[in-house]
Amino acid sequence: MSIATSGLHHVTAIAGDPRRNADFYLRTLGLRMVKTTVNFDDPGTYHLYYGDESGRPGTLMTFFPFHGAPPGKQGNGQATATAFSVPEHSLGWWHRRLSEAGVEVDRVGQRPGEDALTFRDPDGLTLSLVAHPQPDPRAPWDNGLVPPEHGIRGLHSVTLSVDGEDATAGMLTGMGLSPVEQQDNRFRFAAGDGGPGTYVDVLVHPRGERGLVAAGTVHHVAWRAPDEATQAAWRSELVDNGVSVTSVLDRQYFRSVYFREPGGTLLEIATDEPGFTADEPLLELGRALKLPPWLEPSREQIEAALPSLDLPSENNPRRSAS
């Protein structure tokens, strides 16, 4: 393909209790709620977006929290791990913080050129904090809950579990990613010049069980396109190559198309524009429930069906300063 992504846009996962989900990602991990909205296909369910101060592409982790959702099963055909980037000296601090919060943390693991701390969120979603020696220029969300010198900078990478690497590798290289290293059955690819926020690891389990998407699993992985024109050209190339791709969908804060890579994981191409300040000011991001125009007539019923989230005051600078 002639179109190449610059890196990860966001990762979307399934959760259970929305309040428990928000408490963990806001208070424990120190991310910001940059948008509180609903699943456009199921408006009785939240769609929660966490990221840096403005929710820049590459910093975003989002959730569909279905209260009472059954647990999923991680396995082949899905993204089985999501990693965030932290400063190289911060893993000891994070180990203490997570342990004090009652989170079971694996020992620091060695990967080629980097260290990783692996744990699970309250629904069992596998997460890692990766200290990469290459400096990450992205600024953390400075909310007073996590010191900025240790704060999460954004996404580092995702891991796709597959039966075999060849077909998945072919699609990734067609999307402009390049193979950069291999460790046993783990193959790493990078977008652009590489670095945190550009990586995808392909983990090969030839006889592994298939995963089941439900609570505690990733729903899809989104890659960046700078604008709608680039996305449209990219979609056309995918269609020309025989890939089944959705029409362009309006997600209010970006435009999306979806398709599956040959190993089974659902992928998305999401535009960088227009961003999360399209319908509320930067200082108020995430505070109020935002609905697309076609759902506004049902706002009263939607709000009545959704539980309150109890956002920390630190999520909105104006509120915490008052």
TrEMBL record:
GO terms for molecular function: dioxygenase activity. Residues 7-132, 154-272 form the VOC domain. Keywords: Dioxygenase, Oxidoreductase. It comes from the Bacteria. The keyword Oxidoreductase applies. This is Diguanylate cyclase. PROSITE patterns: VOC. InterPro entries: Extradiol_RC_dioxygenase, Glyas_Bleomycin-R_OHBP_Dase, Glyas_Fos-R_dOase_dom, VOC_core. SUPFAM superfamilies: Glyoxalase/Bleomycin resistance protein/Dihydroxybiphenyl dioxygenase (SSF54593).
